[in-house]
Amino acid sequence: MNSETELAPAVASILDAARERGGDDETVSVAARSLSDALAQAESDGRVPVIAEVKPTSPTADGTRDDDPVELARAMIDGGATAISVLTEPSHFGGSPEALTRVREAVDVPVLRKDFVVREDQLDVVEADLLLLIVRFVDDLEGLIAAARERGFQPLVEVHDRTELETALEAGAKLIGVNNRDLARLEVDLETFESVAAHVPDDVTLIAESGIGSPADVRRMREAGADALLVGSAIMDHAGGDSDVTENTRRLVNASDGDDQT
């Protein structure tokens, strides 16, 4: 694990809570829906591949949403989302494994489990198609990637800088997310993705995460090399209902049209 001296208090609290949570005694086995196939289908349809996130709350959010996660996911798919991300971290994000299970049963696209997994036993909580692993929080990344793949998960390995990128590549990551949110100050800078993406091999699927709030941001990340975008707040915030969630998603997946310059 990399140094924790640069973690914001909220992030340190998340990590402490993650270390306390256990997994299940029974090993999970997943017949995963292919993200690469879903990305290819979106591209073929002329849609920007967006992984839309069902996120009740977060340390950087203003307030909490208590919408039915299944209805939110369906609204996102109606707007053209390629995949769905569901928070399962309970203490700081209001998520749950049960919410992910309900969503995955209700949709036919890949579903990402968004959580803070630090040990192998924590893989065995719920079936999902993709699983987030954060380089900064993991001691044995190579071992955890291998264990995730053995269960059928497609591990999405999250990095924040070039050093973490090298760690991810050395561990064999083929699906990498670059998070634009700094873990020390919780500030967002899209240049983070741009600076890291330039050093990612062509055979790696690259996802831009955090801070993508407009069609212009989408185009910027795509021009920098993003194969897909993970978006939560821009879809969930200021959405009065499912129709707003659908429209917010649609604006982003159609960003390549170039009509909205905001």
Can you describe this structure?
The longest helix has 12 residues. Helix 3 packs across helix 4. An eight-stranded parallel barrel has the order 1-2-3-4-5-6-7-8, surrounded by eight helices. It has a single domain, classed as Alpha-Beta Barrel (TIM Barrel), CATH 3.20.20.70. 45% of the residues are buried. It has 262 residues and is α/β, with parallel strands linked by helices. The chain has ten helices and eight strands. The mean pLDDT is 91. Helix 5 links the parallel strand 4 and strand 5. GO terms for molecular function: indole-3-glycerol-phosphate synthase activity; phosphoribosylanthranilate isomerase activity. This is Indole-3-glycerol phosphate synthase. One of its GO terms (biological process) is L-tryptophan biosynthetic process.
Characteristics:
10 helices; alpha/beta; globular; about 35% helix; TIM Barrel; about 260 residues
The CATH architecture comes to Alpha-Beta Barrel
Overall pLDDT: 91
Order of helices and strands: HHEHEHEEHEHEHEHEHH
Alpha-carbon distance between the two ends: 39 Å
Instruction: Report helical residue fraction.
Output: 25-40%
Query: What's the domain count?
Result: 1
Give a short summary of the structure.
Pfam families: IGPS. The chain has 262 residues and is an alpha/beta fold. The chain contains 10 helices and 8 strands.
Topology:
Blueprint lengths: L8 H12 L14 H11 L4 E5 L14 H10 L4 E5 L9 H10 L4 E4 L15 E5 L6 H11 L2 E6 L2 H9 L4 E5 L11 H7 L7 E5 L5 H9 L4 E4 L1 H4 L5 H12 L9
Family: Belongs to the TrpC family.
InterPro entries: Aldolase_TIM, Indglycph_syn_Halo_TrpC, Indole-3-glycerol_P_synth, Indole-3-glycerol_P_synth_dom, Indole-3-GlycerolPSynthase_CS, RibuloseP-bd_barrel
Catalytic activity: 1-(2-carboxyphenylamino)-1-deoxy-D-ribulose 5-phosphate + H(+) = (1S,2R)-1-C-(indol-3-yl)glycerol 3-phosphate + CO2 + H2O
